[in-house]
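Q: Convert this sequence to structure tokens.
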Amino acid sequence: MNGHDFELAGARLCALPSGALWWREQALLCVSDLHLGKSGRVARRGGTALPPYDTRDTLSRLAADIARTEATVVVCLGDSFDDLDAAADLPADERLAITQLQAGRRWIWIEGNHDPGPFDPGGIHLAELALAPLCFRHIARPGSAGEVSGHYHPKATLRTRGGAITRPAFLADADRVVMPAYGTYTGGLRSRDPVLAALMRPDALAILTGCNTHAVPMPR
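A:
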């Protein structure tokens, strides 16, 4: 499978170019920070009008990753919806799309800071998921090991002869992986930000997403 293979706490993982994480041994696909319904939330709060196609695009890309991996477990690592109103206001066709993706597989929504309460788009809602040797949660906790988290929307820059390419990126070291945001309308925090620099080990990698993955020393 096209992606970057690496090991975390003894688990063999693959960072996919789409920004999803694949754990073949568990047939588990993990995505973070979908922020479904962001265009609707921005409109409700009087912000700049955004084309209302972000949820459909995000779900379409997720469907392609599920089909490609044949995942039987899907973990959505928090901030799956841009807020609880976005979850409640999900149009019928988009709710149906989620239901179709859930059919025949275990689907786990991890609690995030944008979607902290229970909601009912199907599946299971958990504060975090422990699946040895890994633990899946929305926000990283210093001192943890085998941790998969999201929240920060990391991005990194690859320097080339033709210039520089900045892309959403996985940050990975011996203790944890911080996932990039998967949602269509999501920004990013540069890996050199002090919050991320303090969280990751000095030898951490940044795995840039896009058409292919590119692993480079985490820029600081």
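The CA atoms of residues 74 and 107 lie 5 Å apart.
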